[in-house]
Structure formats: structure tokens, C-alpha cells
């Protein structure tokens, strides 16, 4: 009988994509995903080091598994990802029953390490400081049959003072454009119609081989791939955002009219102490040029509230910038101290009460802006790509869910013959801060819908009761 596995994921899209690779490698090594509700023989935690509660969650889950593992000595636990990279020894000290600790550059070794830990009956640690093989060459068990992530780079050359990524994922390593496009073409041949190009700072892509125009060119090259309907990317950095990227976005029909560009703060002095090397006028200038080139584009952002030294006036500058920028959505985070980052050692930390209070104020303010931006869509028709996971969750409410071209979440009644991966034209009739509601019209069956249906049929045949590994964000 084949041994089963489950993968628990914390953190960002990078980790979600790495978890797809972990699952793909375990599949290839002969393991199978555990059925829902059952205890897996191998539990892999793919961790995050960005937020404080990520450690708590991991150690909570490990203690929960301790007695289960004691009762079943054949069970194995592996911990990977950013926290493993940072806290390698600490993990084994706190949870000596963990079998494998593997770093962000060691995903490919996981099956070997599990095997070695089993034979040698000893915990294995493998943490590389630098990248050996570009991780996308590893097999992946993709979450979606029609939408996929493609890594263009790993690591980051910036030194934002709140961020642990440069320490944990190393300096930026760009992937060869030929390899990226080869992977995209292969995915498209398998039925993928939407890709998201992924990197810590995607538009710095090319810095590794001295070509500042490489990211714009990559977008244009993706535009040439027949059958690829939607191209997205995340996340760009305002410092490296050049006009040729705006031009490429506007001129390449399958590059979607959506820009997610982290702002982090609307105060120049806070941007400076965050070591974010742009100022608000540059940020707003990019938004103006994007909107000039693509009036229908939506813009979303990330903001950190309560960075050390943030005064009420700094915070107000962030509120004002949100008013001016009219973001369709802003993902707001309360600053949390990460040991090992320069910001954690800054003397003027903001008290938790003040951070919480500002966070609520900004959240409420942005809700109002998002609602008014979304209300502008009422009466318009959106092409909505039906989601798989999003769609499934809404079954109880008899509605389907998908994403518009500009990345708005759209709900509509499920009385149409559309499959996840198909495109539905939806007439928008209602708006809230987080989503739009509309009436479905024409359905366009896509190759993505075919791929989703084929994969479901195949899964039913081969796995009967076995589901996907669990991915928790
Ligand atoms: S750009 Fe800044 S926040 Fe983003 S990964 Fe690099 S150092 Fe971290």
C-alpha cells in the first residue's frame, strides 16, 4: 500500500507554488495525497517567516502531531520553507521528533531526505545558502488545471528593513527567458490558459544578466503564445517599474489590465526608513501613466501600518495617498517585528494599541474607496474566468465565482453550463467592497475548462477517495 502525504502551506504565493513542487516530487517518488479527514503518513509543513504567528502556528501543529507520531512511528514530519531556513536548529530543539528540516533551496532533496531519515532513524537537516538548480525544473502537482504560476526569479537584491526575504531566499537569481517560455508553452499544451509570472521583484527581472528591458520583453513574448489567454505578474517594485513595462502591458492583449504594486507607506520619511528607494510622487506617477495607457486597469496594493517611527502625520499621509490613488483593493498588514530584520532593532516601535487602531481606521477608509471603485462597474459587462477553488466554495449559495480580467472577484448564479476554467460574460448589477455580483450571459467553453474536466475525471478514476493535499494559507 502506498504511503500518503499532506502538505500544509503558510505564507505567500512563492510558498504555494513551492508546495505544488513538493507535492509533485512526492507523487513522483511514489507517495499519494491523503484522503480528506485521514491522517497522512508524511506531513510536510511549508513555512513562512514573515509574520509572528506563523511560528506559533507551526509549533502548535507540531505539538498536536507529537502524540500521533508517537503512536505511529512510521509517520514522518518534514518542515521546509523560510522558517526552516532561518530556524533550522531551533525547530529540532523544540520538536526533536521532526524527521526532516529542509531549506528554501532544498525542495528537490525532500524525497531523498525522507528516505534517509527513515533508514538511518535520524533527523536530517539540509539547508543550502544558495540556489543550485532553478526550482521550476522540479515536477509540480498544480492546484489548478487551467491557471498556473511560473517563477521568473527567486531571491531579492533589495534590503527593505522590515523584510527577511533577502536573508532567507538570497540575492536575486533570474531564470533564463528561454526556460520560462518553454515552461509556459508546456503548460499551455497541457490546457493552462492563465499564468502568473512570479518573483519577489518581477520587474527587476534581467538584472542578473544586465538587461533592463527583459521583463517587458518577457510579457511581449508571452503575448505571442497561442492559446495563452491571460497573463498576470506579481509583485513589481515601484523602483524598477519602467515605462516599457506599461507599454508592453497596454500593447499585449493577453496581459491583463491589473497592476498589484506594493506601496507599503504613503509617508516619504517612513519609505526612507523602510529603505524603499522610491517616494510617493514616483509611485503616483506610475499609477497616472498606467491609467493613461490602460484607463480600464485596476490597481491594488499592500500597505504596512505601524512601522517603527510612524507618527500620526505619517499615517495620515498613507490615508491621503489611498484617497488619491483610488486602489480597487489594498491588503493592509499590521507591522510585526521580525527578529533578524533591521526594523526589529529600531528604537521607536509603535505600541500595539496604536498599530491596531490605525489599522482599523485604514481598513475602514479603504473599504469605502474599494466600494466606490467597485460601484463604477455596475452596468458593465465583465469577462469572468470561473475559478476552481473559489467556485467550489460557493456551491452552497448556488453561485459561481471567478475573476474578471482586471482581477475583481465576481459572483453570479450557477444556472449556467459553465465549468471552472470557462469564461462567462457577466453583467454587473451589485457591488460591495470585496466583490461584484452580476447576471451570467454568454458562456465560452475554453481549453482550460476541458483541462479541468479531464483532470477531475482522471482523479476520480485513479484516486477514488483521494483528494488534493491540504494547502492552508
Ligand atoms: S523588495 Fe523588499 S519587501 Fe520585497 S522581497 Fe525584496 S526586500 Fe523584501
Summarize the structure.
The protein has helices spanning 13-28, 52-71, 82-94, 110-120, 165-169, 177-189, 214-223, 243-251, 268-273, 280-293, 312-325, 352-375, 389-393, 447-463, and strands at residues 4-9, 32-33, 42-47, 76-81, 100-102, 124-126, 147-151, 153-154, 173-174, 194-198, 230-234, 258-260, 298-305, 329-334, 381-386, 399-404, 409-413, 423-431, 436-444. By secondary structure, the chain is of the alpha/beta class.
Q: What does this protein structure show overall?
A:
With 473 residues, the chain is an alpha/beta fold. Among the domains are: 4-132, Methylthiotransferase, N-terminal domain (Rossmann fold, 3-Layer(aba) Sandwich); 142-256, 2-Layer Sandwich (Transcription Regulator spoIIAA), CATH 3.30.750; 381-456, Beta Barrel (OB fold (Dihydrolipoamide Acetyltransferase, E2P)). Helix content is 37%, strand content 21%. The chain has helices spanning 13-28, 52-71, 82-94, 110-120, 165-169, 177-189, 214-223, 243-251, 268-273, 280-293, 312-325, 352-375, 389-393, 447-463; strands at 4-9, 32-33, 42-47, 76-81, 100-102, 124-126, 147-151, 153-154, 173-174, 194-198, 230-234, 258-260, 298-305, 329-334, 381-386, 399-404, 409-413, 423-431, 436-444. The strands form five sheets. Strands 2-1-3-4-5-6 form a six-stranded parallel sheet, sandwiched between helices. Helix 11 (312-325) links the parallel strand 13 (298-305) and strand 14 (329-334). Helix 7 runs parallel beside helix 8 (243-251), helix 8 runs parallel beside helix 10 and helix 11 (312-325) runs parallel beside helix 12. The radius of gyration is 23 Å and the shape is globular. The two termini are 30 Å apart. The model is unreliable at 464-473 (pLDDT under 50). Iron/sulfur cluster binds at residues 156, 158, 160, 163, 165-166, 200-201, 237. Iron/sulfur cluster is lined by residues 156, 158, 160, 163, 165-166, 200-201, 237.
Amino acid at each position: 500500500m502506498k504511503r500518503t502525504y499532506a502538505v500544509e502551506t503558510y505564507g505567500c504565493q512563492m510558498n504555494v507554488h513551492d508546495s505544488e513542487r513538493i507535492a509533485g516530487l512526492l507523487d513522483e517518488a511514489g507517495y499519494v495525497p491523503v484522503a480528506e479527514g485521514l491522517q497522512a503518513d508524511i506531513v510536510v509543513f511549508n513555512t513562512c517567516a514573515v509574520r509572528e504567528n506563523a511560528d506559533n502556528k507551526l509549533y502548535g501543529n507540531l505539538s498536536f502531531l507529537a502524540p500521533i507520531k508517537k503512536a505511529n512511528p512510521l509517520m514522518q514530519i518534514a518542515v521546509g520553507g523560510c522558517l526552516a531556513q532561518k530556524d533550522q536548529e531551533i525547530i529540532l530543539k523544540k520538536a526533536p521528533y521532526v524527521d526532516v528540516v529542509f531549506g528554501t533551496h532544498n525542495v528537490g532533496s525532500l524525497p531523498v531526505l525522507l528516505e534517509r531519515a527513515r533508514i538511518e532513524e535520524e533527523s536530517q537537516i539540509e539547508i543550502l545558502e544558495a540556489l543550485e538548480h532553478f526550482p521550476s525544473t522540479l515536477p509540480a502537482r498544480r492546484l489548478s488545471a487551467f491557471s498556473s504560476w511560473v517563477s521568473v526569479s527567486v531571491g531579492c537584491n533589495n534590503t527593505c528593513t522590515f523584510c527577511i526575504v533577502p536573508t532567507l531566499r538570497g540575492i536575486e537569481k533570474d531564470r533564463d527567458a528561454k526556460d520560462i517560455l518553454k515552461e509556459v508553452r508546456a503548460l499551455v499544451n497541457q490546457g493552462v490558459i492563465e499564468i502568473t509570472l512570479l518573483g519577489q521583484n518581477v520587474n527587476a527581472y534581467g538584472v542578473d544578466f544586465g538587461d533592463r528591458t527583459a521583463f517587458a520583453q518577457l510579457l511581449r513574448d508571452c503575448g505571442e503564445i497561442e492559446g495563452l489567454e491571460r497573463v498576470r505578474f506579481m509583485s513589481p517594485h515601484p523602483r524598477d517599474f519602467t515605462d516599457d513595462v506599461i507599454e508592453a502591458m497596454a500593447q499585449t492583449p493577453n496581459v491583463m489590465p491589473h497592476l498589484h504594486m506594493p506601496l507599503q507607506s504613503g509617508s516619504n520619511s517612513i519609505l526612507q526608513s523602510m529603505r524603499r528607494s522610491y517616494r510617493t510622487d514616483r509611485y503616483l506617477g506610475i499609477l497616472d501613466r498606467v491609467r493613461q495607457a490602460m484607463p480600464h486597469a485596476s490597481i491594488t496594493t499592500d500597505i504596512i501600518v505601524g512601522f517603527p517611527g510612524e507618527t500620526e502625520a505619517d499615517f495620515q499621509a498613507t490615508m491621503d495617498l489611498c484617497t488619491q490613488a483610488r486602489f480597487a483593493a489594498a491588503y493592509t498588514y499590521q507591522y510585526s517585528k521580525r527578529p533578524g530584520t533591521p526594523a526589529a532593532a529600531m528604537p521607536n516601535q509603535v505600541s500595539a494599541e496604536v498599530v491596531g487602531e490605525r489599522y482599523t481606521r485604514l481598513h475602514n477608509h479603504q473599504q469605502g474607496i474599494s466600494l466606490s471603485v467597485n460601484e463604477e462597474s455596475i452596468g458593465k459587462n465583465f469577462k469572468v474566468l470561473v475559478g476552481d477553488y473559489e467556485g467550489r466554495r460557493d456551491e452552497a449559495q448556488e453561485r459561481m465565482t471567478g475573476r474578471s480580467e482586471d482581477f475583481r472577484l465576481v459572483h453570479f448564479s450557477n444556472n449556467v453550463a459553465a465549468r471552472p476554467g470557462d469564461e462567462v460574460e457577466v453583467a454587473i448589477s451589485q457591488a460591495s467592497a470585496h466583490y461584484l455580483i452580476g447576471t451570467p450571459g454568454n458562456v465560452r467553453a475554453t481549453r482550460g475548462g476541458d483541462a479541468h474536466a479531464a483532470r477531475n475525471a482522471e482523479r476520480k478514476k485513479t484516486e477514488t477517495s483521494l483528494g488534493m493535499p491540504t494547502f492552508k494559507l
